[in-house]
Amino acid sequence: MPKQKTAQQWLQLIEQQALSGLSITDFCQQYNLSTKSFYYHRAKHHKKKAPQKSQSSFVAAQPAVPAPVSQPPLLQLKHGQSTV
Questions:
Q1: Per residue in 11-45, is it b (16+ CB within 10 Å) or e — as a string?
Q2: What per-residue confidence (pLDDT) applies to 24?
Q3: Res. 1: pLDDT tops 70
Q4: Which residues contact 25 (CB under 8 A, 6 or more apart)?
Q5: What is the distance between the alpha carbons of residues 62 and 21, in angstroms, rounded to a whole number?
């Protein structure tokens, strides 16, 4: 029965694969790893690594010069040489 790898060992393997220039399939074959396990641990690592945002990324914007109300909105659609 194969020995279980620690989280630190998986992290080292993930980093080693990224630097190796090998595809994940080739890397896993070379190191006798399951590609399914490799993808699982890589996704798990990236999920932990993702930064957590505490605030919304949206910012309220105001136009520098308000559009005059007397003009209706204008929408032009171009498709090749045609403009609608």
A1: bebbeebeeeeeebeebbeeeebeeeebeebbeee
A2: 95
A3: no
A4: 35
A5: 48
> What would the pLDDT profile of 11-46 be if each residue is shown by its tens digit?
999 999 999 999 999 999 999 999 999 999 999 888
Q: How far apart are CA 75 and CA 72, in angstroms?
A: 10
Q: Looking at the whole model, is its pTM more than 0.85?
A: no
Report the DSSP beta bridge partners of residue 82.
Answer: 79
Beta carbons of 11 and 18 less than 8 angstroms apart = no
Give the span between the Cα atoms of 44 and 50, in whole angstroms. 10
